[in-house]
Write a structure and sequence with these properties.
The protein is an alpha+beta fold. Helix content is about 55%, strand content about 10%. The longest helix has 20 residues. The structure holds glutathione (GSH).
Length: about 375
């Protein structure tokens, strides 16, 4: 048996794992989450309906894109290591795993669900194709779409997309595209000639939603051609960097962080750090209200619950109300671990880069109890 990746073509987080497997040359099959076996055998073992799930040839299951990558990296199986070996690159990669996976959900949801004239006919086919049981009737497929799209439209509000915030969501995304496109003028990937963890974080929203749904895809092609090409490249097994003269498949020399990348980091500071501050503060208050939590539990009524509450923060002239998810703390801890575990000179260099780009809050914002992953779920540590 080969590896099997259970997910859907239109799933944000499946795109991260898929890109990684392609880039590493891991032989795998894309499998649909609508398969009877997924629901009957895999979901009960994972403890909730969630994609992606990787099934290894030995039958082991791994849910979560970050964990799937960590699995191959730990085995030393990566032909292009996702975790850079030098301190600044390692840190930048980890920051973009967090920001890519969790910080671009506003544009991803907005450009998927608020452009029905252009997107709906496609989504009506695309969702059931991967989510409905094989051979489902037209009526059953329509029901699957109605249910899934209804949930997702509702979820969009939990990320802070509302009629009032839409102009700011669009302006922020246009700025992000411009900055990333500028950066890609100098290199085919975020950190040079090879993909790393930061690229896998960013591909999550930038592929399935923003480069594959009809409305945002055209927009990306028209306004951010290099980002469009990077999306293609992130789904190609080879370096796919002919227009760059096929540079060596290596990261920037001397742990360099070019000015264009610093501008992207400053964008993260402006766009996403206020949300990190808000969810860390909320999480600490929530933990203070739940003093007796058993380590290894999520403190919620059901193991599958992922949202512990809602918080508000000021963002581009609006007050955004967003869901708070411990998973985001889990990825934030990974950023902090990179710095905490480094030798003092490397730590000082990382701190200096974060200070320079307005991101030092990422190191200082800590929660009172660690978020850990056990049995494929996010749970509270001791
Ligand atoms: N932390 C997970 C998040 C996975 C996730 O949220 N996946 C979405 C689909 S892209 C999902 O399964 N949502 C559950 C649902 O729709 O009920 C990961 O990175 O793999």
């Amino acid at each position: 048996m080969t590896y099997r990746l259970y997910g859907t073509p239109g799933s944000l987080y499946t795109g991260k794992a898929r890109s990684y497997l392609i880039k590493q040359g891991v032989p795998f099959e894309n499998r649909a989450a609508g398969e009877a076996r997924f629901r009957a055998e895999i979901v009960p073992k994972i403890g909730r309906w969630i994609i992606p799930v990787l099934e290894t040839p030995a039958g082991e299951l791994i849910q979560d894109g970050s964990e799937i990558i960590a699995h191959f990296e730990a085995e030393g199986r990566a032909r292009l290591p996702a975790y850079p070996a030098t301190p600044l690159h390692r840190l930048v990669a980890q920051v973009f795993e967090l920001f890519g996976g969790e910080g671009l959900l506003r544009p991803a949801m907005h450009y998927r669900w608020n452009f029905d004239d252009t997107n709906r006919a496609f989504l009506e086919r695309d969702f059931p194709a991967a989510l409905a049981p094989t051979g489902a009737s037209e009526a059953a497929q329509a029901e699957v779409f109605a249910m899934a799209s209804g949930r997702m439209r509702k979820a969009m509000a939990g990320f802070g997309v509302s009629p009032e915030t839409i102009p700011a969501v669009e302006a922020a995304y246009a700025e992000f595209l411009r900055l990333f496109d500028d950066h890609l003028a100098g290199s085919p990937y975020l950190l040079g000639g090879a993909p790393s963890l930061g690229d896998y974080g960013l591909i999550a929203p930038l592929y399935a939603h923003l480069a594959r749904d009809p409305y945002p895809a055209r927009m990306m092609q028209r306004t951010a051609f290099r980002v469009w090409r990077w999306v293609e490249r992130m789904n190609a097994a080879d370096q796919d960097a002919g227009e760059y003269g096929c540079p060596p498949p290596e990261l920037f020399a001397d742990d360099a962080v070019p000015e264009t990348l610093k501008r992207l980091l400053r964008f993260v500071a402006e766009d996403y750090l206020p949300e990190v501050e808000a969810f860390v503060a909320f999480t600490n208050a929530w933990l203070a209200d739940h003093p007796g939590l058993e380590p290894g539990t999520n403190g919620m009524p059901r193991t599958q619950d992922r949202v512990i509450g809602q918080t508000a923060f000021a963002w581009r002239g609006h007050e955004l109300r967003v869901n708070v998810m411990p998973y985001r703390v889990y990825l934030l801890q990974k950023v902090q671990a990179v710095v905490d575990e480094a030798a003092p000179p490397a730590r000082a260099a990382m701190r200096a880069l974060l200070d320079e780009t307005g991101l030092s809050g990422l190191l200082d914002l800590r929660v009172a109890r660690r978020v850990e992953r056990r049995g494929q779920l996010e749970v509270w540590g001791a």
